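Before the break, one more example. Copy the sequence into your notebook; we will annotate it together after we see the structure.
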Amino acid sequence: MIFQGKDGELRLIEYGPVPSSTTYYLEVLFCDMNFSGPIKRPKTEERIVMNRNKFDGDTHHVQGGDNIVFDPIEFTFTCRIADTNNTRNLMDWLSGVTVIDGTTTIYSWKGKTKDMPGRYSGTSLPAFGGTDKTALKVEMLWDGTIDSGLVYNEVYFPPERQTLTEAEEGVTLNCTGLVYGDVTRLEIFTSGLTAM
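Here is what the structure looks like once it is written out:
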């Protein structure tokens, strides 16, 4: 079976205050089918070291700095917005609002995941320096005989990178997320309650 865009669903998921509490998510219904994102985080670069610029038996590689592993990586998607409460909630979540409709608190994933690859496994990423920033988990899943998808951990949506485009057939929300956590495989959505 070939996956098609219509088979896909994207969810934004908040952390919940403690693991036993309710986790809320938002389904993003997008019709342009233009989700674009990496399938894994980058690895450290390899630099070759030669013997006085000559390739010989002493030539070897050394790993570069860790920055490339921890710098945010980008993904994008668009969706058409409708005259619904879900649209208002989506725009609030993407702009960092932490209390929705005056009742539901959205908790950040920043610093909560410990699934960085290789030698970083088991170490939490640091929290943001600014306390006014929220990171979400983003899950993208394609439905098929064997479901397949990706999880983007600790995703920050810079408010200035979320833009609206008006056209005759509707208003489109163009979204850009910065992934600070790991990118892993997904076969089933995280359980929770929809935040409509």
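The first helix runs from residue 67 to 70. Residues 153 and 181 are 5 Å apart (CA to CA). Try to locate both features in your own notes.
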